[in-house]
């Protein structure tokens, strides 16, 4: 089945207001920037985004945030996005901060048909006991807090140990970016750009993938495929200019002394 669509605008055209999006990337590495821009251009709003972070103020999910298109974020950290922090603390955005490994496993579990799992991460903290502020009002008062979670004791090789129950995440749509992909939706991610992309791809009921290089079926080594096409529903082939448009959060440079190595 050929899953290639003509444009990013066509790929995102049926994402409705109020949808939940699982979005790949880490910082600005491997983010589906073209699909995000298409969602922005379409005018879709009231979205919940599940992503490790929210881009930066002028790129990635930060673009949707800046236009107040996001009502809720499930993420691991605020990162370099000052507007994310401002909206959260002023009551404009609900934020469910989640330990990074737990977030990854919640996405993987959602894509694997596992409704919930137990993990040691967060035991003895507000992650398990509840009370983490999810939403503030404009006066700085907490209006929505995280609930307490089920904690159980299991026998381990080191004796009894407590674990907290975490629920899987299944999103309405997933947006990911791959290095290479074929017309059947098989995807290969490159180096650190792999990050959350395979997990987000698994968790989406409908998964959209932008690919830097589109190849024909059979051109990818099956042993190198990170996300099988069964998880992917639409493929957008990027132009060379779109594929090359990659940004970093902070540029740090060092000049060597004259005559140095």
Description:
With 261 residues, the protein is of the alpha/beta class. It has two domains: 8-115 and 168-240, Glutaconate Coenzyme A-transferase, CATH 3.40.1080.10; 118-167, no CATH class. It has eight helices and 13 strands. The protein has helices at residues 8-11, 33-42, 61-66, 82-89, 100-112, 126-129, 197-203, 240-244, and strands spanning 20-23, 47-50, 70-75, 94-97, 116-119, 133-136, 142-145, 151-156, 159-167, 171-182, 187-188, 204-215, 234-237. Strands 1, 2, 3, 4, 10, 11, 12 and 13 form an eight-stranded mixed beta sheet that branches. Strands 5-9-8 form a three-stranded antiparallel beta sheet. Helix 3 (61-66) links the parallel strand 2 and strand 3 (70-75). Helix 5 (100-112) packs across helix 7 (197-203). The longest helix has 13 residues, at 100-112. It is globular.
């Amino acid at each position: 089945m050929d899953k290639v669509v003509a444009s990013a605008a066509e790929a995102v055209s049926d994402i409705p207001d109020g949808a939940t999006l699982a979005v790949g990337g880490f910082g600005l590495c491997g983010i589906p920037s073209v699909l995000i821009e298409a969602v922005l251009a379409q005018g879709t709003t009231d979205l919940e985004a599940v992503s490790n972070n929210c881009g930066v103020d002028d790129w990635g999910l930060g673009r949707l945030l800046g236009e107040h298109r996001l009502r809720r974020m499930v993420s691991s950290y605020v990162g370099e996005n000052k507007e994310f922090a401002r909206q959260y603390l002023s009551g404009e955005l609900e934020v469910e901060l989640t330990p990074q490994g737990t977030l990854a496993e919640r996405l993987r579990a959602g894509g694997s048909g596992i409704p919930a799992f137990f993990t040691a991460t967060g035991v003895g903290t507000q992650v398990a006991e509840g009370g983490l502020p999810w939403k503030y009002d404009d006066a700085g008062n907490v209006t929505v807090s995280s609930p307490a979670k089920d904690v159980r004791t299991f026998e381990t090789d080191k004796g009894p140990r407590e674990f907290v129950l975490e629920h899987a995440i299944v999103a309405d749509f997933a947006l990911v970016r791959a290095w290479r992909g074929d017309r059947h939706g098989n995807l290969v991610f490159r180096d650190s750009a792999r990050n959350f992309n395979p997990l987000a791809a698994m968790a989406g009921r409908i998964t959209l993938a932008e690919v830097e290089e589109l190849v024909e079926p059979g051109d990818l080594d099956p042993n190198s495929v990170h996300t099988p096409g069964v998880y992917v529903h639409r493929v957008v082939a990027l132009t060379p200019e779109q594929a090359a448009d990659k940004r970093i959060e902070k540029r740090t440079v060092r000049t060597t002394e004259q005559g140095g190595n």
